[in-house]
Specification:
single chain, 281 residues, mainly beta, eight-stranded antiparallel beta sheet, 2 helices
Length: 281
């Protein structure tokens, strides 16, 4: 054995994961100017490390590979998507037609959109790094264990000042956002305990859930026939059309109680608008 080698790192496919899902799809093929596609997924994904295929990680303990077995970091219980495209029933060949110049004015309009929604991702209340030893190649936080069945979070609580030194970084009186994942961050903080190496056989990875998210993109435009073979099409596309602000999941670290649960970063982007113009022939 070479004493200068502190540890041996190699990649293998020895990890274990488990995925189950129920999928529901409603689809309308184009007719009368309307088409849409709706899909919903109810799923659960479990794994040992919380990583995807193109990443590298290692077990907290080589003796107990299932210490961190729990929800994958990408596990969203509910996911729903809706896309649609609708040509308004006005103009030549449509249900409502009024005449030459009127048809040119009201005809050719269309709308479309994309609605996405998904439930919160798993969250881990971090105790410290590498409680079970680990190695020197990677470092990651270990999840503390809940004392009671966790039923906290999943929504934005406003005007939360924090107490007992927990969540106080968000105190509005001190320039904080006043936003917290928990109505009482101190109570949640005290609902977790550090791992006892002599007793516990697993960590508390992914026992909480973060904020759900949804977004609506919308498009509207008009197609204008210049000749029998040439058409001009312009559109306005709105991303996050409602200009909703959604917050990123907070820090949950027992070593940093002041920031526990405080919401301070934005998850999505503000509304953006783009204009498109193209010639079809």
């Amino acid at each position: 054995m070479n004493a200068q080698v502190q540890e041996l790192f190699f990649r293998t496919d020895g990890g274990r994961s488990n995925y189950h899902a129920f999928m529901l799809i409603f689809r309308k093929r184009p007719s009368h100017g309307l088409q849409f596609d709706f899909n919903y997924t109810l799923s659960k994904s479990l794994d040992q490390l919380g990583s995807v295929q193109d990443s590298a990680s290692f077990f907290p303990s080589s003796f107990f590979p299932n210490l961190d077995y729990g929800p994958s970091f990408f596990d969203h219980t509910h996911i729903a998507n809706l896309t649609w495209y609708y040509e308004l029933p006005f103009g030549p060949g449509r249900r409502f037609s009024a005449g030459n110049w009127v048809d040119k004015l009201i005809g050719g309009w269309f709308t479309g959109g994309i609605l996405t929604a998904f439930s919160g991702a798993p969250l881990t209340v971090v105790q410290s790094t590498q409680v079970f030893g680990g190695g020197t190649t990677f470092s990651f936080g270990t999840g503390a264990l809940p004392i009671t069945k966790p039923k906290f979070g999943n929504e934005v609580h406003r005007n939360v000042a924090g107490s007992g030194g927990v969540g106080t970084a968000g105190d509005p009186a001190r320039g904080g956002t006043g936003l917290n994942l928990f109505a009482d961050p101190e109570a949640v903080f005290k609902s977790f305990r550090p791992i006892r190496l002599s007793e516990d056989t697993r960590s508390g990875r992914g026992v909480l859930r973060g904020l759900p998210h949804w977004n609506l993109d919308f498009s509207a435009g008009k197609a204008i026939a210049l000749t029998e073979a040439v058409k001009l099409r312009f559109s306005f596309d709105f991303f996050n059309v409602l200009n909703r602000v959604e917050f990123a999941d907070p820090t949950l670290d027992l070593r940093n109680p002041a920031d526990f649960g405080v919401l301070s970063a934005q998850f999505n982007q503000p509304r953006r608008v783009q204009f498109g113009l193209r010639v079809e022939f």
